[in-house]
Amino acid sequence: MRRALILPAAIIVLAGPFVAGYLLSRPDRATAPVAIPSLVDEVREALAARYYRPVSADVLHLDSVGAMLSALRDPYTAYLTPLSYRLVQHDTAARYSGIGVEVLPTERGLVVVTVPPGPAARAGVQRGDVIVDIGGSSVVGLNAAEALARVVGAPGKRIQLVLDRQGARVELSVNRSYVRAPTVQGRLIAYAGAPWGYVRLASFRSGAAKLVARELKLLERKGANGFVLDLRGDPGGLLSEAIAVSSLFLNGGVVVSLSGAHFVHEVFRAATGEATRLPVVVLVDHYTASSAEIVAAALSQHHRAELIGERTFGKGVVQAVDPLDNGAALILTVARYFTPDGDGIEHVGIVPQERAVDDPATPQDEALVAALRALARPPS
To answer: What are phi and psi of 32, to 5 degrees?
Structure first.
C-alpha cells in the first residue's frame, strides 16, 4: 500500500486536529509469530531505506531514536508518540477546541503565521510572534504533533504562552475554547469599476480543492472578471490537494516532480478541464510554504498567474508517515520537490513578479490592492 505524501511545512493548527490525509495503516502483517524489531531498529531501517538523502553509518549506529533524528538536523522528520499519532489521524475539523493559530517551525521556536478570530487573537497573540514556551515547557526543537498535543483538549482550560515579539518577552494566558477554522473563504470585491473574485485558501487540508472550485464557480456566476488567489500565511498540507488546486486553473501540464535518494523520480500533472479561464493573480508572502508554494510556482511557470507579494518560505521537501509497531509513527522526509521548470526551492523560496506587502498600520490591504490593480490592468 502506498503511503500518503504530505507537505506539512510542519503545519500545525495549534488547537485543532493536525492535518488530514495521512495513511492510517500499513501493509498487512504476517499472522505467524515473528520476532518484533525494537523501536530503534524500526526507525533505523526506515532511515536507511527511505530517507531522502543518504544517512551515514555514524548516525544509524546511534543507540536511540532521539539521537538519530537529532543528528539529521531535519525539522520535518519526527517521531510521534502514540498519543500524538492518534491526534494526527483525525481529519481536520471545521470546529475544534483549542487556541486558534497556525505556526511554522524556526530555530527560535514556532512563528505565528495566521491568527484568525478566536482565543489567541482575543488574548493578544499577533502574527509574527514566536512561541518559545507552552505551559512552562520550551517548544524549541519540538515537532508539530508534540506542540499540538500540548494545546488540544476540552474547552475552558487556560494555556500559558511565552512569546518572543521582536526581541521582547511577552507572557500571555489563552483560554482554550471552540474555534471555527474555515479552509476557504471567498467574496466579490469591486475595483476600478468591475467585480473581482477573492479566494483565500488557509491550508491544503483534505477537500480543500473542492471548496476552492465551489467558490470559483459561485463568484464567476456572480460576475467576477478575474480572481485573486490568496495564499499568504498558508503553511501547506496535502500534496494531493496541491495537484487538485493547480488543476482548477491549468488545463494539464506538469505541476511538480519528486525525487529522493530512495524515491523513484515521479512527475505529477494537472488534470485537464480547468474550472476557470479567467485571469488570476496569486498573493504570496514569507509564510507561504509547502503545498502553497507548489501551486504558486505551477501557476506562475505555466504563465497562468502573476505572483504578487513577498519571497515564499522555501520548504522544498515532502514527508510520509510510517506507523510503528508500538502505536507510534515516524514522519519521514522522503523526497525533494521541483517546480515545472525543474527548480528546487528548498531554503530559497519563490520570488514574485511584483513585491507588495500589507502595512498593518493602515486600514487597507496594500498587497491585495496591488493584486487587483494587476487584474484590472489592460492586456498588453
So the answer is: -70, 150
Return d(Cα 77, Cα 141) in angstroms, integer: 11
Instruction: Say if CB 201 and CB 289 are below 8 A apart.
Output: no
How many domains, in total, are found in the chain? 2
Domain of residue 297 covers: 184-316+333-376
Q: Look up residue 314 and give its three cell numbers.
A: 522555501
- Residue 290 region by backbone torsions, left for phi larger than 0, else alpha for psi between -120 and 50, else beta: left
| Within a domain: 222 | yes
- Residues 140 and 265 placed together within one structural domain of the fold: no
CA–CA distance, 65 with 43 (Å, rounded to integer): 7
Residues 168 and 214 in one domain: no
Question: What pLDDT, on a 0 to 100 scale, did the predictor assign at position 20?
Answer: 27
Written as one letter, the residue type at 104 is: L
Distances (CA, A) of 163 to 32, 108, 117, 127, 171: 52, 10, 19, 11, 6
- Are both 355 and 287 inside the same structural domain? yes
Q: Let me know whether 122 and 258 are in one domain.
A: no
| Mean pLDDT along residues 193-213 | 93
Mean pLDDT of 286-293: 94
- Domain final position from 180, 211, 239: 180
**pLDDT per residue over 164-190, tens digit each?**
999 999 999 999 887 766 679 999 999
Q: Which residue has the cell 509469530?
A: 33
Closest CA to 250 of 200, 184, 298, 201: 298
Question: What is the rounded average pLDDT for all residues in the chain?
Answer: 85
Per-residue pLDDT reduced to its tens digit, 7-34: 543 333 332 222 322 222 222 333 344 4
On whether both 194 and 287 belong to a single domain, the answer is yes
What letter represents residue 255's amino acid? Answer: V
Return phi, psi of residue 314, to 5°. Answer: 85, 55
Q: Would you say 146 and 14 are in contact if contact means Cβ atoms under 8 Å apart?
A: no
226 and 349 part of one domain: yes
Asked if the structure places residue 76 within a domain, the reply is no
Residue 290, CA atoms < 13 Å, CB-side half-sphere: 28
Cell of residue 27, nine digits: 501493509
Q: Tell me how many helices (H) and strands (E) the chain has.
A: 10, 22
Boundary of a domain, candidates 180, 205, 233: 180
Which cell numbers in the block locate residue 94?
471545521
Q: What's the pTM value of the predicted model, to 2 decimals?
A: 0.82
